[in-house]
Every structure is written in C-alpha cells, then in structure tokens.
Amino acid sequence: MAEEVVSKASRRASDAEGAAHAASSPPASARAARLRLPSGPREEDATKSARRRVLEANLSEPESSPPPRSEGPRRSSPPAGVPEVFGPAAPRMTGRVDALGASSLEAPPDRRRPNVPPMERGVGVSLSPRMTALFGGLFGLATVTTIVALLVQGAPPRDDRSVIDNLPSTDAATANADATAPTATSHKRVRIKLPSPWRVADLSKDPGIRVVEDTMNRRSFVGALDDKGVPKDQVYRILKAFDGVHNFDKTSKNDKFVVAMDRGTKRVVGFEFITSPYEIAQAKEENGLLAVSNVDMKLADAEVTGSFYVGKNLSKSIEWGGLEPEVTSALDDAFGGRISSDGFEEGSTVKVVAIETTALGEFATYKKIIAAEYKPADPSQPAIRAYSFDADGEHGYFDERGRQPDGSGWGAPIIGAPITSHFNPKRMHPVLHKLMPHNGTDYGAPTGTPIFATYRGKIEHSGPAGACGNMVSIMHANGVESGYCHMSKIAPGLKVGDKVGTRQLIGYVGTTGRSTGPHLHFWTKRDGKFFDSETLKVDGFRVLPPSVRPQFAQHKTELDARLDAVAMPELPPAEPVAPAASAAPDSDSPPEPAGDDESADANGAADKSDDKSSKKPATKKDSAAVEGDPGEGEDLVGPDLSH
What we know:
alpha+beta, Glucose Permease (Domain IIA), 25 strands, Nuclear Transport Factor 2, Chain: A
C-alpha cells in the first residue's frame, strides 16, 4: 500500500511539472536536454514510476542530430493544394504535453534516408512564376496554330473559272485571250465536186420504172440478177449487149449492179456494172437496143503529200493528216510485208508521197505510192522506207538497200536476229539430252528484244504454255498458224481474238519455260501439222541487178529529200471521254446478271462472240493441249496446239 501511495504522489507531481513546462513552452530540444542523464553508471530510484524509468532509458541513448541546413536561397511557400505541414511555416501543434516530453510528438526518423531532414521529405516540384509563364505561352501558341490549320483545311478550293466569270468585261477578255487564239485544224483536203453524168439510178424518178441494185457477193451473174427479179431473157439480153466489152464470168464479191426495168413488161431499159468508183460500165436502151459505154467520171491524177501520227483511231489519224483512209491499202503494197497498217503502233509516225485519182472532183483511189516512211514509236527501232522505182524493166517497190520483197508478205519475228537452231526432227535436246524433234526455228537475242508478228492474223493463244513458257500463237490465212515461245513478257493488252498486223509488237524475248537461255522459239503449222518456217521465205527479196543500182541510188536520194521535207502535222485532238452514267438504276428493274458489262462490246455482235469465247473457261482438252506444249517441239506432234 505504501508503494502504491508513493506512485500516485509521483504521478501528481509529474502532472504538475508538465503543466509548468507547457506554460513556459521551452523548446523540445531544451526539454530533452534537461531530461538527458549523464553517461556512466546510474542508480535506480525506487520512488520513480515505471513510466519514468522507460522515459529515462530512451533518453539515455545518444540523439542523432540532423545535418546543418545549407545557407541556400530561401524556400518559397509551397504551392496551393500542398499541406503546409511539409513547409517551413508549419503550424505549431498545441495540446497537452505530459511528462513524456515533446520528443514523443516528433515523427520517427526515416532510417532509409537518415541525412534528409523530416521537413524536406515529400515536398512537390514547384515552378517559378517565370517558367510557369513560359510554358503557358508555348501551350497557347500551339493551340492557336492547330485552330488555324483546321480552318485552312476546311476552306473550299479556289475556282479559277468562277473568278474569271466574275471579272469585269475588260479583265475577262484578257483572261480568255488564249481561248480566242487559232486552234489546230484538220489538214483534210477541200474538194470541189463536179456535175455528175447521167446514171441509171436517175430513172427511179419515173413512176413507171423500177430500179433495183445489189452486190455480186460471190454469186454468178445470172443468179444475182435472177434473185432481184430480172427475167432470164432480159439477163441474156444484157450479156449479149456486153459481149466483147466486159466478161461477167469473173466478178468480184464487191462488184455492184443497178438494173432499171419497166414495171409493166419487166423489160430492161438501163443497166450499170460498177467495179470501182471510177470504173462504171453502162447500158442504156436506145431504139430498142442496149447501147454500152463507160461512164465519163472526169478522172484526174494529182500528186499529194501527207503525214500523220498513229492514234487509237487510225482512220481519224489519217484524215487529220490530210489523207484518206484508203491509203492503208496502198501502204501495205508499198512496204511489201515489212510492215502492215494493222501493225502500226500508237505513237508512231507515217509520211507519204503519193498519186491520187479523183472522180468527178472527189477522191477515188491512190494510184501509186511514190515514197513512204514508217517510224516506230520506239526511237531505238529503225525507220522503214519504201521507194517506187521504174527503169530498164525493173518496177515496183524497193527498200533502202535496193531490195524488193518477194511478195510473200512473211517477215522475220525479230529484226536482224541470227538463227541459232533450225527445224530438225532428230535433234539432241540440250536439256533432256535425248533425241527429240525440234519443230521450230530458234532466234538468238538478248532478253527484252521486241518480237513481232510474222504476218497478219488473229490471236489464238496468249499466256503460259507449259515448257514453252509465255507463248503467243496467231492464226493466219490458208490454215497457217505461227507460235512464239519463251517470252519474258507479252505485249500489254494482247488477248485471244485480237487482230494483229505484220510486224506488230506482240512480246519480248525471254527464257521462260524449258529453256537454256534467252531466245525465241518460232514454230509454224499448216492444217495442224508442224513444218519448217524457213520455207515461208521469211523476209524473202530479190536484189536489183548491178546495171541499174547507180540509177536507183540517185532516185532514192531525191525521194529521201522529198520525204524529209514533209512536215508533221499538229497532234490530233484527244478523244472525248464519255461521261459515266450517274443515274441510279430503276429500283423496279431486275438486277443485271454478273459479267454482262465485260462481255459487252461496242464493235458489234461479232466482237461480242469473240470476247465471250475468249473469256470462256478452258476445257480439259484445251488445258491439256496448252500445258503439254513444251515449246521446243518434243511433244508437239500434230494438232497439239489446235484449240
């Protein structure tokens, strides 16, 4: 009991002492210093409470003093939102301080960072007013730039045409000065038509006369007139009138006839047989008999010159250059198979010096080509010239070296390329190393060398063909077919059913398929069977005899100067592009079946059938024929490539 009373007295003394300490408010460090006991052995005071002994034991340990603060710039007040307890001006804590001392209110030191004062821990990064203003200005500038960019992007494009329309009259006239400048015009010749002589067709004005006309179309003369209702006795009457003047046993399919008959008696009162626009034989009834004569068409010959660029529409290109579309036939005769009008490439140029024939003042035909030049679109390809020459029994068209094509029309598939392997049914194959037929002719040339159609015809195959690689085959007249193998690339746009001309570009030399190197394997078939293509007399010609060569050289020099003097016309105007149909289809109408647009062709039903046949999926038989074609003739026996 005595010990408990002493303990209560000690507690009251401690409370009084604490109140006195709180009233005087000495610093916490001073209070701790007064409570710190001297080092050395101490005696335990029995009168002290257990709480006091614990306090004294804790204060007996040496206190680690914080490192001295550097005399740096005075710390600014913490930013808004940060509790001031972390700043130097933290509010003083008030409250009851007991005998434990103020040290019990201090936060325990951070043992992970012992050298950092407690007040400096957890303080947020702060910016000076100057830095804050700088970053604020940059952010504002970026915002303004973004808004301006969005406004510029959303602005409508400027319409120069509307600007010109809104100009005053004087300014508009200046702006449209170029529109009033002279534009390029066609060089088509202006001709004056002469009065026409009497024609059988003029009898149609008589109501009592019936006039019929038709073409022969490979019919007999008697049969053609009988089909038009001409009595046979009148047919024989016509034949008797023309006896010794014209032979109707040999007629062309394009020959025309005109018959005038009395409606009541069907007696022939007039007849014309037209073989050309300027060759017309006529029979007119006079005194009961048919009097025969040739119609005077006022024929006249004149020399003309012209030139044209080859465009998408060849006929329009020719007319733009001042020539007539019929010039193509004359050019084909002049070039003699070295090039044909069907093979004229877009972008190439043609110069012509010719003699034309007019009938009644209008164009009738080209009588002769004096000189002509074809310059391919590819500048690396040489120009082709043809010269008309007549002297000492030599007449016809000759090339630059005085050679005359033999008239066969077949040209070499590669200009100037040597033959590296001939047609050989018993050849040792260079890859398979066994005897296998070589059913073609090989032309050696580097990869990319142009390959041309050897003669005009129709594309039968265009694409991969097994060991033959990329291949194009062309069906020609008289059952002859030619093939071109191992191409590196087929000419763009070339498809089955297309018509090609002599020396038209069809592809480029390569080494696709079963091949030992770049070359062209050229094969030919007749009625489905291979034959030696060299028997076609490819690029065959005859040379002028030495006696007339000096005369030809002088004549050629004169014609070269005349060709060089022919000026090229302006470029033809671009073809107008048809606007796409914008109207939506009628909702009530049924939908179009798939694939109809691709099969449609503006060139007529014949072309449509060709397109459909070309797009028809290959049958098993056709696929086997193409895939089994090695291109070198190993397995190409008979009709392997006949599709």
